[in-house]
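Tokens for chain A. Residues wanted.
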């Protein structure tokens, strides 16, 4: 699996992680976000063309991370299934939206889990959204 995604998953399951720390894991900040504005990040990993970090309730707390894969750098759904287990169907929310599947990263004892939403064309993942959720 892609090293950037693996690092982000581990990081997002921890308490006290900031949007700046997540941005540093991805690359360099292009446009600072705010309380209700996504931070734009230029990925260091050439597998990704762009990235955004959307804050949670506080401006410095990441809620979602969106990574768009670069043209010709798609990962396969089979790679995700090998790394994260069985995929789950996600209904389309609007016309023209690419098909999506979900995976769940839930390390034992971690204060947060991460839902992994993979948008795909055929068997090729074209973008990934990571959503950080507080465990109950």
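Reply:
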């Amino acid at each position: 699996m892609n090293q950037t995604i693996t690092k982000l998953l581990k990081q997002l399951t921890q308490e006290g992680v900031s949007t700046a720390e997540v941005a540093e894991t991805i690359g360099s900040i292009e446009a600072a976000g705010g309380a209700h504005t996504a931070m734009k990040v230029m990925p260091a990993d050439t597998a990704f063309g762009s990235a955004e970090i959307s804050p949670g309730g506080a401006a410095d707390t990441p809620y979602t991370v969106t990574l768009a894969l670069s043209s010709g750098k798609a990962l396969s759904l089979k790679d995700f299934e090998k790394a994260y287990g069985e995929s789950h169907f996600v209904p389309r929310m609007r016309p023209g939206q690419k098909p999506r599947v979900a995976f769940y990263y839930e390390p034992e004892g971690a204060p947060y889990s991460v839902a992994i939403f993979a948008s795909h064309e055929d068997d090729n993942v074209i973008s990934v959204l990571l959503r950080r959720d507080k465990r109950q």
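The radius of gyration is 14 Å. The longest helix spans residues 3-12.
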